[in-house]
Amino acid sequence: MTKTDNKPETKVTKRKETKRSEKVLPEALVPESQWEILGQACMVNGKAVRLRQWPTRYGDMPSNEDMHERVDQLSKRLNQLLTCLYAQGQHKLLVILQGMDTAGKDGAARAIMGSVHPMALRMVSFKEPSEQENSHDFLWRVHPHVPGAGQSVIFNRSHYDGIIMPIIQDNVSAVWIEERIRQANDFERLLVESGTTVLKIFLNISREEQHQRMVDRWEAPDKRWKLTEKDLHCGENYSMYANAYEQVLEKTCTKQAPWWIIPADHKGFRNMLVAEILVGTLERMGLAWPEPDPAVAKSEFWKKPSTTTGT
């Protein structure tokens, strides 16, 4: 899944005497052959969502050193792509990261954002809704944070918590669930029809790995403070959360905004796959550096200064 030597052939059409290499980004770091493998392995694409049947880790993985090197390579490429998206000022990218507690939403975001300029990407984290947020519809607090033209945003948790948590905590009816799912799908359709690419990634962690990570947090004084009663509830009721996510993931996997399910037990492999999917998505947007300001291009400033002699 990490091979990069098979690079697709591309047809180059000449236009006037412009230097195409200066105008269009270089060839794909995630070529078509690799993109197809990623899609078959991780994209829901109409498949039934039974999280126990989706892998939480793979036995055949690159070495930790190779994965770290690949993530670093992808992160630098991501910075170039996101900067180009920002400069072009046309496309919009919304990345939704979901997963059960300790699945690694923060960790994945930190790993891939390491080389990314802050102006090119921002992350929004959604915590428990405030009293004011609860007094509105569940999309009210989310909509102001979606990207505008030339912007890229990562949602750490999202409007999906407004469906998942009531299913678990409030014993809501099937009609209520269907209504919220329809509203979420309509919301994402609106974004897509308005020019936003919506990339939804679910980090799939096993019960055993989640338990171990919670134990590790509890035993580390600098991490123990992060644990809440709700985290403990998730750990004690893993199957309940998995069942809720299964309902929602399957019914909100649409053509315009499909779900990717990523094995999240191994942190390095998780980070690498998320980075591969992000870079692959951006490389397929047809991004190109914008033309320079005509006034700047015509300036005499760019001519070689004449050599002067004398004192």
Automatic annotation (TrEMBL):
Any Pfam family: PPK2
Compositionally biased intervals (Basic and acidic residues): 1-12
Record InterPro entries: P-loop_NTPase, PPK2-rel_1, PPK2-related
Segments forming domain Polyphosphate kinase-2-related: 63-284
SUPFAM superfamilies, alphabetized: P-loop containing nucleoside triphosphate hydrolases (SSF52540)
Residue span of region Disordered: 1-24
Gene Ontology BP terms: polyphosphate metabolic process
A GO MF term: phosphotransferase activity, phosphate group as acceptor
NCBIfam families the UniProt entry points to: PPK2_rel_1
Protein name (Swiss-Prot/TrEMBL): Polyphosphate kinase-2-related domain-containing protein
